[in-house]
Design a protein that fits this description.
Layout lengths: L2 E6 L3 E7 L8 E7 L4 E8 L3 E6 L6 E7 L2 E7 L6 E6 L4 H18 L2 E5 L14 E3 L12 E5 L7 E2 L2 E2 L1 H8 L16 H9 L23 E5 L14 H11 L3 E4 L5 E4 L2 E4 L6 E3 L6 H9 L4 E3 L3 H9 L3 E4 L13 E4 L31 H4 L3 H9 L4
Parallel strand pairs: 8-9, 8-11, 9-10, 14-15, 14-19, 15-18, 19-20, 20-21
Antiparallel strand pairs: 1-2, 2-5, 3-4, 3-6, 6-7, 12-13, 16-17
Length: about 400
């Protein structure tokens, strides 16, 4: 199979022909300025060769390829790029949900086709029908696009074989057309990462996800809760916090539905588990996200830490009570949320420019404060936040 790979940028038009090395055909290539129908350059190349022209900033370039007296390919620049590929480097649920609306915004603002890779395409393909979702994550295999973007965290989190490698991050990103070549994720919100890389204004946009039509099987009023995370500093580390909160909710007629993947999670000596109780419904387990979305949709609120399920709840439209000490309140979304944190103790290390997060250390607490950022968040403060969404 013969592939014609084109790329246009502000100053160059590029064509590569790839295919079977045994293809002996000659391919006659023309670069035509459609403003005046002037042929800027012609050449003849074979498979697995390329050609390009420069100084095209004010030209409408058309690339034509002829073989055996037949037109086999053409592609028009038309003053602008026409198609881009965007790769989400992070596979986490929260990052994906948070970043996706900016891909759609980029598509609309620039009036281009967008090919997008995420790990969770099935959550979005029906609600963002104008985005072309792909399962190909290797940008080298994506052909016939004018620009390529990688949305991901900056070099402060880039690991190679579990070793921090900022230089490798810079080399990896050289092949992308990101609007900026460097940024510090610690100084901006999670959603702003996508804004910065795509060159968009920093405006909060609520994401959309596919919501099944199925109703809930849970009778009565309830809240959904997710307590688990991927590092101990992300938890609500108050040892009595969840127990007292669950008791309050039960006394006020609420069922508490726990929807984490894992019932117990952590490391030796630091396993985390939600309290049990007569009004606690344990729905932990490796269940499809479509089921989680239904549970979230019909709940009065989601009570959780800074987690992917918090972002999913925001997209579904269910209010969120977020308990987090390791991030600053500006790190997450600002609408339909009550954010609980304690500004009077050590907090916000995720957004501290002097700290490099060590994901390999489960007990990472950079200032050795024994997770005081969340230990000092009291049950009564969370309860006051919960009351704002109670029905």
């Amino acid at each position: 199979m013969t592939n014609f790979i084109t790329r246009f940028n502000n100053n160059n038009a590029f064509l590569e022909i790839s295919g079977d090395p045994e293809d002996e055909n000659d391919y006659f290539v023309e670069f035509v300025d459609l403003n005046n129908n002037f042929v800027e350059y012609t050449t003849s190349i074979k498979v697995n060769h390329w050609s390009q022209i420069s100084n095209i900033s004010d030209k409408n370039i058309l690339i034509k390829v002829i073989s055996n007296n037949k037109l086999v390919f053409e592609r028009e620049r038309n003053y602008k790029f026409n198609k881009v590929f965007i790769l989400f480097g992070s596979e986490s649920l929260g990052d994906t949900v948070g970043w996706l609306p900016y891909v759609e915004e980029y598509r609309k603002v620039n009036n281009v086709e967008v090919v997008l890779y995420t790990r969770h395409n099935y959550l979005f393909d029906k609600v963002y029908p104008n985005i072309i979702f792909t399962n190909i994550s290797d940008s080298n295999l994506i052909n016939d696009v004018d620009k390529k973007f990688r949305i991901d965290y900056g070099p402060e989190l880039y690991l190679v074989n579990n070793i921090l490698s900022p230089e490798s991050w810079k080399l990896s990103n050289e092949k992308y057309d990101n609007a900026v070549k460097y940024f510090d994720y610690r100084t901006i919100s999670l959603q702003a990462i996508a804004n910065v890389i795509l060159g968009l204004p920093n405006i909060e946009i609520v994401p959309k996800v596919s919501i099944p039509d199925d109703g809930t099987k849970i009778k009565g009023k309830y809240v959904v809760v997710a307590i688990q995370s991927t590092s101990q500093l992300k938890y609500w580390n108050n040892p009595f916090g969840w127990e007292r909160l669950f008791d309050f909710l039960s006394r006020n007629g609420y069922k508490v539905v726990v929807i984490d993947r894992y019932r117990n999670f952590g490391t030796t000596g630091h396993f985390n588990q939600a309290p049990k109780g007569k009004n606690v419904i344990d729905k932990t387990g490796d269940r499809p996200l479509s089921e989680r979305i239904i549970d979230i949709k019909y709940a009065d609120m989601m009570i959780t830490i800074s987690s992917g399920l918090a972002w999913l709840s925001w997209a579904v439209g269910t209010p969120v009570v977020m308990i987090s000490g390791f991030t600053k309140p500006t790190n997450e979304f600002q609408s339909n949320i009550v954010r609980i944190y304690n500004p009077n103790v050590c907090n916000g290390c995720w957004n501290d420019e002097s700290i490099f997060f060590d994901a390999s250390d489960w007990l990472f607490c950079p200032k050795k404060q024994d997770f005081i950022c969340s230990k000092a968040i009291l049950s009564k403060d969370v309860i006051e936040g919960v009351k704002k969404f109670m029905k």
